[in-house]
Write a sequence for this structure.
């Protein structure tokens, strides 16, 4: 059975900015921050590091960046879903903008992942794409606002609200995460407060002057947003109790 | 500095026939056979298993099944050469028939591998392809005789001799390995005796009734061929000494 | 301004079953049948035949089987939208199952076609795909029921009604055409009567014993369905007038 | 039977810089220049213009920019070799840098073209690629000196001589054409005088201030080089006659 990350969650990856032991070191720092603030954290790891990270961390939810849909057998260079799972991954990215998929491939990848109880984390590039990909009911959608590149923050929040509503209108149980262009912990806080289930950053952290300090601040922001949302909810609930 | 496998060598892989712990178990058996018969063995491992196999074997020469040519940075789903090397791989397949490359990509992959001292193992599909790919001077060429599918053994040996000669005429230092369609240890012996630097089998072993017995017999055949070639050479040398 | 085919319409193509003069001959027969029964007919033509067919037919709506999204400039082997339009095509296929597109490519192709007033005819492979592709608002959707291969007619009609409803619920102005597996003129009649805006056949006609007779019968079926739908509507209207 | 262009020949294309009637107009100008200077000229035309150009020119050797290798049958979006030939093309580009092919695809495309007597015009990106592609024995090789971008003319001539020698050493009957970065008629003259069988330009002409004047000057340069080579040869022959 799949156990989805508990919202609000944090997500990060290393892409190929770092490799080898540096990936493990970063993964352990994310694991430590997740434990410190009691927040679920998704870590998308290069294939070669998945197993070691799974072995040496305790709380991380390790995802593969892609998988093929073949079944055990031939396929010298393909990424076998069973291999990704056996290495310890519990989820997989679908349709990352650097590896775009056809509709049929998206459908098959999500079906294959469901078969193995792998969590599906699908990327979309615009409002229309977010609505399109939601039809296949992945577990998480990350509507990367490519449309927004070069625009200011206000329209950013508008895009965020529009994609969030479009997805939840269709399937309220799909988790929505924002991750594009995040470089500050305050953005993490704002996105969670706006109703997103998760927020994350990859290059924003890895290219920062002090990546570990920023990582800690970002995970702390998820925690703070979680607490503030609870306070708001409690207040609302107590008001509702008033006659 | 690259240290190439010492001919005659053995080569195997699991493609995606098995995954997870079964890959490690098989790799350890290949490692044991390589030690037992004192033969170099190349093991092409799925990305997710490279590091663990490198950590838990002693003699295996572990290769990745493919790599991209990007440099550290972006590339969520790409296979970074530095990542493959950091995981312990010392070589990489180039142009496997299931992942055919353009000429430019072949050239770049070999250059990128050379930069990191990764051994390049290139596949070719016909005599013309073997001659074409030899122009880029990979370390090893595996001229998979796709042309031969459905034909009998005799023409098989003719193809083997033709590709071997074509490659060695161009670059005598390129190692030539035969691997396609090998299901018996006697074929391993015959190919080595015919002058090839290596021979191998993947599905031939994994689909056998007793894979571990066949694996042992195949590596033993490499050893026997090596010894018999030495005897032949010694005899020839001693004859040459005769006045 | 785009002028869409007037429902119910007929659609056919030759894929690569025939080429050269045979394509022109077939196109002229479709043109003649369209005129005879006063039915709009879409003809998807190989690139090399688009101009000649446009020059020598009068009623056909000629579509290209694919186009790239580049703008005039480089691109030796790309299909330039402006070139397709200059040759006389008034529409283009999007996401044919033999050339599946990523979501981003679907979006861009539709936007580029709209810019040039080219009608977009998008293919989908399942109910979920039909709903996904409808998000990008193509002019026509052909939900090829790949899911149905090997199943009987009844579930075929169920699939047809499900995709039709799903698409019209989202955008009532998207035209829906059924084309997969049609080999008899009665199927054309049934699909139109079921509410589809169009129906068509390619290999079903070209592989028939007498392609020209079948072509004529199919276009006649579109006409008959159109007339019968009108009679039904008139009756309904007159009933509504009754107090 | 294939009739290859008679060296020295001229070659040009429009890529996608222009489309529709402008392509025909340009093709007719190339045809006129070819007639005026009695020089064979290859014209690589967009698929949609092949037939019309073949119909309306007399001397041009029209080539397609790419073709697939499928046989008549399915293939909605594929370029059928028979269709390209039926439209009037007598040759086809292979492995253009904007549509790089695998070794297997290069081999199959050349075999398929030979089957239909279509002339094969293969592109290569470096000396090693030129030698590699020569193994498949295309009729013409265009070794685009991508390596030279940003370098000066002298090394340009060195690259030209190296690729020319490498190809002719392997197969003296392969025609060698230079085309990359040519913007002046004097370059056309120099490349022919250096021993190349052909020379050409596409964007160099189309982006010029006066394309038609430059086109005329370039074809005239081929003629002048042809005449000057003949004078040199005649002198050499008469000297050889001297005792």
């Amino acid at each position: 059975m799949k156990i989805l990350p508990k919202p609000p969650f944090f997500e990060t990856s290393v892409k190929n900015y770092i490799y080898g032991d540096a990936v493990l070191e970063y993964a352990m720092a994310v694991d430590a921050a997740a434990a410190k603030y009691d927040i679920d954290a998704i870590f998308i790891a290069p294939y070669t590091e998945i197993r070691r990270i799974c072995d040496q961390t305790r709380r991380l939810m390790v995802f593969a960046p892609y998988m093929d849909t073949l079944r055990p057998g031939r396929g010298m260079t393909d990424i076998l879903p069973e291999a990704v799972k056996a290495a310890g991954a519990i989820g997989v990215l679908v349709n990352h903008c650097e590896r775009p998929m056809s509709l049929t491939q998206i459908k098959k990848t999500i079906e294959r992942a469901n078969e193995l109880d792998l969590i599906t984390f699908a990327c979309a590039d615009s409002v229309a794409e977010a609505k399109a990909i939601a039809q296949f009911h992945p577990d998480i959608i990350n509507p990367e606002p490519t449309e927004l590149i070069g625009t200011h923050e206000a329209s950013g929040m508008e895009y965020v609200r529009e994609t969030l509503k479009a997805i939840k209108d269709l399937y309220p149980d799909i988790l929505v995460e924002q991750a594009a262009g995040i470089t500050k912990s305050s953005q993490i806080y704002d996105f969670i407060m706006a109703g997103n289930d998760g927020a994350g950053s990859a290059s924003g952290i890895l290219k920062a002057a002090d990546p570990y300090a920023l990582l800690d601040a970002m995970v702390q922001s998820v925690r703070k947003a979680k607490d503030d949302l609870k306070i708001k909810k409690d207040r609302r609930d107590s008001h509702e109790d008033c006659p």
